[in-house]
Amino acid sequence: MPRARGSTRLNVTLDPDHAEKLTRMAEQAYTQEGTLARSLLARAIDEADLDGGTMVELLNGIPGAFERARLGREQGRRGETIPLEEL
Question: pTM for this structure?
Answer without folding.
Answer: 0.58
